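Supplementary Note 2. Why include the ligand at all?

Several targets in our set were suspected to adopt different conformations when bound, so apo predictions alone were not considered sufficient. For every target with a known small-molecule partner we therefore ran a joint prediction. The input for adenosine-5'-diphosphate is given below.
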Amino acid sequence: SSLLEVRNLHKSYGSGSQAVDVLKGIDLTIEAGDTVALVGPSGAGKSTLLHMLGTIDRPTKGEVLFDGQNIFTLAEQSLASFRNRSIGFVFQFHHLLPEFTAMENVMMPLLIGGTRRSVAEVPARRLLDDVGLSHRITHRPGELSGGEQQRVAIARALVREPRLLLADEPTGNLDMKTSDEIHLLLDTIQRSTGISLVIVTHNEKLAAGMGRTIRIVDGRIV
Ligand code: ADP
Ligand code: ADP
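The joint prediction is reproduced in token form.
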């Protein structure tokens, strides 16, 4: 089966006469190893859809099958453990912990999961090398450029070897040159690992070079 199958997904915020329908019936299939760019105007529902794919928000109606499993039937705790195992997130703002080094930030998801520090250091070091930051492992986020901070966030998102990487405007806060570099890095990682990548972006030209483009307008795929 496909990695992800989204069926008739709806999301509304509020209720009764105050209800706002943000997603109005999304159908989407993503195979393992696919790259999908979500594009469209601001407010169209791209982030909302990404949050549903990432199980950090629940739909009002419809279902998301991950490896054939209807994930929103899981109780909250099982859903959280599924999410931690299977999905990596990169956001516009990196959410790195300022008191910790690049290395510690990348190790953090493993340490929280109970992995010993000496064990967690191995993949963290390798991933920091993969994102081009082997010379920055003892730096804290405040000592890194915006692009470097986002590279740390990407390494952290990958440290638990997720099947799916979700990126919500990962370059929205970066200058054009740095933005191109981060897109290229995500593309390289996707190709070398075979991870599935769903990226919300305004850079449609770069997105088109990475894979399939899906346009969302007013809560629907067009
Ligand atoms: P996009 O990512 O395409 O810019 P979003 O998914 O962020 O769009 O938002 C789509 C719409 O949903 C917007 O009108 C936004 O104001 C609304 N929205 C998003 N999150 C919430 C929320 N938690 N409560 C109410 N409305 C929300
Ligand atoms: P925006 O997309 O509007 O910039 P954020 O990226 O800050 O907003 O966060 C979007 C949503 O993702 C919020 O609901 C936030 O609580 C959640 N979130 C942020 N960081 C993480 C994380 N590391 N893991 C899970 N959920 C997160």
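Helices lie at 46-53, 76-86, 102-112, 117-130, 146-158, 176-193, 204-210. The longest strand covers residues 20-30. Comparable summaries for the other entries are listed in the accompanying table.
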